[in-house]
Amino acid sequence: MEKRVYNFSPGPATLPLKVLEEAQRDLLALPGLGVSALEISHRCPWFDKVLEETEANLRELLKIPANFKVLFLQGGSRLQFSMVPMNLLQEGKAAEYVVTGSWSKMALDEAKKFGTAKATYDAKATNYDRLPTAGDLKVDEGASYAYFTSNETIQGVQFLDEPKTGSLPLVCDASSDFLCRPLPMDRYGLIYSCAQKNSGPAGVTTVIIRDDLLGRSTDKLPTMMNYALYAKEKSLLNTPPVFSIYIMMLVTRWLKNDIGGLDKMLAHNKKKAAQLYDVIDASGGFYTGHAQKADRSLMNVTFKLPDDEKQKAFLKGAESRGLHYLPGHRSVGGIRASIYNAMPIEGVQLLADWMKEFQKGA
Amino acid sequence: MEKRVYNFSPGPATLPLKVLEEAQRDLLALPGLGVSALEISHRCPWFDKVLEETEANLRELLKIPANFKVLFLQGGSRLQFSMVPMNLLQEGKAAEYVVTGSWSKMALDEAKKFGTAKATYDAKATNYDRLPTAGDLKVDEGASYAYFTSNETIQGVQFLDEPKTGSLPLVCDASSDFLCRPLPMDRYGLIYSCAQKNSGPAGVTTVIIRDDLLGRSTDKLPTMMNYALYAKEKSLLNTPPVFSIYIMMLVTRWLKNDIGGLDKMLAHNKKKAAQLYDVIDASGGFYTGHAQKADRSLMNVTFKLPDDEKQKAFLKGAESRGLHYLPGHRSVGGIRASIYNAMPIEGVQLLADWMKEFQKGA
Hints:
Largest interface: A-B, 70 and 70 residues
Radius of gyration of chain A: 21 Å
CATH topology of the largest domain in chain A: Aspartate Aminotransferase, domain 2
CATH superfamily of the largest domain in chain A: Type I PLP-dependent aspartate aminotransferase-like (Major domain)
Low-confidence stretches of chain A: none
CATH class of the largest domain in chain A: Alpha Beta
Strand order of the largest sheet of chain A: 2-10-9-8-5-3-4
Oligomer: homodimer
Number of strands of chain A: 14
Mean pLDDT of chain A: 97
């Protein structure tokens, strides 16, 4: 069999081997059905069960209260950048955006097409290396909603606690850290995530929405952009991405049964991230992290080497050790080690070892 | 290995076995890369090649002229029901819809949200059993575009020649017969298709658009609904459904190399459809087709048995012979045998044999 490498890509990202093995085993024919999950009808009992289990797994993992709907959509997070304001912005009211990196900035710019949206906070002056402190956020209590991005993949800053935005419905783009930790769901109005980091392959987006907010969706919206219609049709407004949802079912099953839930996943993620941040902090400035220490991401560890030549040599050596897709985003540069839920601790350990070895030899 | 059945589902639909076998072989790790197609970055040379080959295969199969763009989107055909009018409807101009079944009716209703759209033709009076004749179409030459659905999956009527709509840009929903035959591309302004019938799994939609029409897309549109932006970013506006496009690459490769192109595919499809229609026509009224003979679909063969009891017995016997997913849509009833490109002739032959045997025994 082809040897697998450690895939540090920011997304699409590594999936649990057990999930891939099950998908592979059944790819020509699902047991007892004789058709592949790539070609089975979405109007059949098998897929009803896939949808049911995926939702049930998410509800159990995140302790989602009964007054929230769980929806499965296409279009990725960038479609949500439009759908959130198109559905939730109210006549004569603004939306408040907490801008902590590239993705929240892009979401704000998109929202401006559909009404009044403004940055309650913007960390641009420090190149998005930090999160707001409690005093930084002065939200208008009469706004339609407050919006934040829980993890900024490019800059590597992450909210491990929700921003203080008062009583406004809180909307969260959790695309790159969904399911990395338990969430206080009662703090949220809407939380969404594309699958291709922690929950599955590219092509499906989960939206969890408090049901009172569904009343804001009007009939004037394009059908496929109306949260209320998705809720009414239980995500079967048209043919959903069957195979991607099936993989999400397997990933959430793995989180429940193999990992043991989100408390354990969080502990595991903290341990993995610490292995890399500890090397950075002990390197005497050889490795420099992009994010402020208090705001560091557990998912995307961003750092730099002293110069481009060393960085090239570092990446070359990493690849020869089976550690791939480590270059940082062009807007920040340096290295980005994306260590999502499914990245095994062995891969992180190998990377930490290589960082230490490389510094010694440099 | 689990035995495969013949899958007559209207979509998601059966895929070529060769495609599934290759996807299965490489599901844990692509050769030489060490990561699965379910988890590989969309910003890597491998995926650049997947996009390139998929587009090149489509261009070769359909002889797509250079002044057309080939785009890959999410959201299915129902998102196109909105995107077509949102991008192409012009101020003060109407759109002309040829309504030949459930899907074109739904597309017309959606278009009305965004401007003036009207039915140039509507076959409702005869329960959508036929297509317009040349004299039926009186389009307003000053309209924004003319729209039709080349194959109505539910009713089983199909255009094997384009409707005569004068010089208007012709927009076609080819979701359920895309790639079943060669097309005179110079007749089209825009043609789109979700993948889950003839070109791949659910989760990706192909849009082929004449480049002069891209000028109608304005900056006010939601980013993910703007054809011009997809064209500008070569379908990488955000993370595309990597795995679904990879499967589409394999399907289009199969069409080229194993089938030998669309002329051969069409001949093959005609032969398959004739096997079933011949049994219907020779049954002396035991089997009655829904569509008028001249307008019958090569993709979805819709027919009825004398009564519900016989229909139940027929379906039960079919399943015991490995012929699955044959019940018709609730709005038409009866049987629907969907025999898309990838349905092997052996499956169709078995079904034809069972139809003859069942009538004898009835």
